[in-house]
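Dear H.,

Thanks for agreeing to be a second pair of eyes. The structure we're designing against is below in token form, covering all 483 positions.
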């Protein structure tokens, strides 16, 4: 349909201006046409999205509108525009939503100079956290690209355009009505090419493409126009980013190339784990990916091609289930007034939790007082003190079987231990926290809010409180002494 003129009224909304004319839809700034509606409205600026439906437009325009009309209203949180209203598909299809102010990621790609490494890490973290929020709601975006990622002034990301998305609780209309792979070729994951939809790791691949472009200025697989060119990413590897930008640190190349693995199982299992590595670059586990300066050898490409030819892509579990099976698991290890029994009990609880969650990421955390690092003594300097505590955490974790689990060690400084633990959990998308239970009686806990009680009350994740107990060997030794 043709563009609507300013002043046109649609179901009580007045068109102000066309702010975007895309290949699949027009976006208009709108307002309520009547004062009474405006007074009782949501209180934020609005836009109206109307799909293009001319003779030359494909059927996917209407199908994708139906998908967005189905999915957008059920999405919540700060990483999606708030839904307001929708129009009748048979009369005039439209969606009215919140107008979010900011710059799309394309803004940074259009700059003459490449963004700094710090900026890239911040942008990547924002994208990963937004995708994680979507995945927690059992939705995969499946069309993440620079124009669909909006960065607000506070640095957080808002994801736009859910016309190609897949929600586990609703029919996948695109898979039912269109037999070809749909998406934006430059950012499409290999499994999407063969028709697999609903795997959250497809969004991680797209974030990897955008990170690659941010640091190098180039697309890792180009922008293929044919299905044959598109399928090449199922076995081809991109030029290593450090070959194009020699000053790029190894940890950033490790992150980007892990996101771009052709097999989904080799990528980050969740967007939360991707965000975690971008926030803690000094503890990114490095593999051979980080060392690459040249593309794959002919033999390696041939091996990948053989694997891709025989690969059977299967439907993935629910995104929320994938997140639950591979959470960021945090353990709070006290550093003072702590018994061997407590340290042993925490380690046993962590071992059990990791044992039933293959692929979980472990963050070992301790909180020290800021005054502890204020001494002028060189041996008690902040760097030395943090190193000592980190070494102690590594020693504590040494008996754990960490095969298949990423692990990192963190020393926080705070006067309020409970608040520091809760904030760390919030900022790092922690899915499960383990800490020791209070050692004094219930009577005292009724009078004083202990650290474990406050954390259990305020934490944004599941909290396991561990009651201390001694190993059997120690108990036997104790019994012999008493006898």
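And this is the sequence the design step returned. I haven't edited it by hand at all.
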């Amino acid at each position: 349909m043709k563009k609507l003129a300013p002043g046109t009224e649609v179901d009580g909304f007045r068109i102000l201006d066309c702010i975007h004319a895309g290949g699949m839809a027009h976006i208009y700034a709108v307002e309520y046409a009547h004062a009474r509606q405006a007074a009782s409205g949501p209180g934020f600026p609005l836009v109206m999205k109307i799909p293009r439906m001319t003779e030359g437009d494909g059927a996917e325009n209407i199908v994708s509108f139906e998908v967005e009309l189905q999915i957008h209203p059920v999405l919540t949180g700060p990483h999606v525009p708030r839904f307001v209203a929708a129009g009748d598909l048979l009369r005039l299809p439209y969606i009215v939503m919140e107008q979010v102010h900011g710059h799309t990621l394309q803004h940074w790609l259009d700059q003459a100079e490449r963004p700094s490494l710090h900026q890239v890490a911040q942008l990547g973290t924002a994208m990963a956290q937004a995708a994680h929020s979507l995945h927690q709601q059992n939705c995969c975006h499946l069309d993440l690209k620079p124009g669909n990622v909006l960065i607000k002034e506070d640095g957080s990301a808002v994801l736009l355009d859910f016309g190609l998305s897949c929600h586990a609780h609703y029919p996948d209309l695109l898979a039912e009505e269109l037999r070809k792979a749909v998406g934006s070729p430059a950012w499409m994951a290999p499994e999407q090419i063969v028709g697999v939809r609903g795997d959250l790791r497809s969004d991680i691949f797209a974030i990897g493409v955008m990170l690659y472009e941010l640091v190098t200025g180039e697309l890792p697989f180009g922008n293929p126009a044919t299905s044959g060119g598109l399928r090449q990413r199922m076995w081809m590897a991109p030029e290593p980013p450090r070959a194009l930008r020699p000053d790029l640190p190894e940890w950033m190349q490790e992150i980007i190339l892990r996101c771009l693995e052709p097999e989904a199982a080799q990528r980050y299992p969740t967007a939360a784990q991707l965000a975690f590595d971008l926030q803690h670059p000094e503890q990114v586990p490095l593999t051979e990916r980080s060392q690459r300066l040249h593309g794959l050898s002919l033999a390696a490409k041939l091996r990948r091609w053989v694997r891709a030819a025989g690969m059977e892509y299967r439907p993935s579990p629910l995104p929320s289930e994938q997140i639950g099976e591979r959470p960021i698991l945090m353990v709070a290890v006290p550093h003072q007034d702590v018994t061997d029994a407590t340290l042993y009990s925490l380690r046993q609880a962590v071992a059990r939790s990791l044992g039933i969650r293959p692929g979980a990421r472990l963050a070992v955390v301790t909180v020290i007082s800021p005054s502890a690092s204020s001494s002028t003594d060189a041996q008690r300097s902040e760097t030395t003190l943090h190193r000592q505590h980190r070494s102690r955490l590594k020693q504590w974790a040494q008996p754990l079987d960490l095969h298949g689990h990423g692990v990192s060690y963190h020393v926080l400084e705070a006067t309020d231990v409970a608040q520091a633990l809760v904030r760390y959990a919030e900022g790092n998308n922690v899915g499960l926290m383990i800490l020791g239970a209070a050692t004094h009686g219930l009577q005292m806990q009724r009078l004083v809010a202990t650290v474990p009680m406050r954390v259990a009350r305020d934490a944004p994740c599941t909290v396991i409180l561990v009651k201390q107990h001694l190993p059997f060997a120690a108990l036997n030794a104790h019994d012999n002494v008493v006898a």
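Two observations from my side: The chain is about 40% helix and 15% strand. The mean pLDDT is 88.

Warmly,
E.
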